[in-house]
Structure of NAD-dependent epimerase/dehydratase family protein:
Amino acid sequence: MKAKKKAIVLGAGGFIGSHLVKRLKQEGLYVKGIDIKHPEFSESAADEFIIGDLRDIHTVQNNIDEAVDEVYQLAGDVGGAGYIFTGLNDANVMHNSAQINLNVAKVATEKKIQRLFFSSSACIYPAENQTNPETPNCEENSAYPANPDSEYGWEKLMSERLYLSYKRNFGLNVKIARFHNIYGPESTWKGGKEKAPAAICRKVAEAGSGQPVEIWGDGLQTRSFLYIDDCLDATIRLMRSDYTGPYNIGSEEMISMLDFTKLVLAISSKTNAIKTIHGPVGVRGRCSHNRLIENDLEWSPAYTLETGVSKLYQWIHQQVNNS
């Protein structure tokens, strides 16, 4: 009997990582998850789940073995605009994530891991390419000259270069994707680290009759958002391809935050007013550019924004009611 393929998901206690574990299990793989915490909203589907700090080289060395077929590196210090753009968490974001990636690159090379996926971010793109909310430029080849708008983006860009250096010098078979605002059920929805889709869904779900829904900035800043199932499809397709990247994994369905809030209100059947307030907003415009991944991997998102946000809102509405 042929042995099961084995995968390791680093960051398996997080939003994307916990969903990825479920998907890989559905495909019949033996899955080990490693994280500093368990998934917040449901039991992990992993065959093994190791609680460990990936900033410690011994945690990485002791839990990644030569027999593994795929390693997905999703672990890092991350949050929404309220965490990333205030400047209060810059040192932790840089140090924690960089230390994890230094450890993973070294150990994956030493253990001769067959395939390694690294989740980078759209935050690596130059700030000056994202000043126009209607025409942001996030094409993969626009990353240089580099000028990310946050230390989070700088760390992701540095780690891209780290992994590509290990590929050039030691033959590490790495795959790199720049995620663009991944959202869906079982994502952080309160506490300061939640991202915009979950935060706005929560605000709408909590809003009483006549209570305005507050959003940061003037609401004209634009983004594109990708539903979690589409993210997993693209991630696994890239992992098992002959390509390296970096590739954008995102949606080209761009929307202003004002219109996004109106969409959530419509989904909720509420008619609350929207109030814009001062707050961290990041770049003025950001949208995935998908020509490269469409051409090389023949991938494009299956979910419309309305379909995906409806699923997210339904889940967050339930969380609000149960809290």
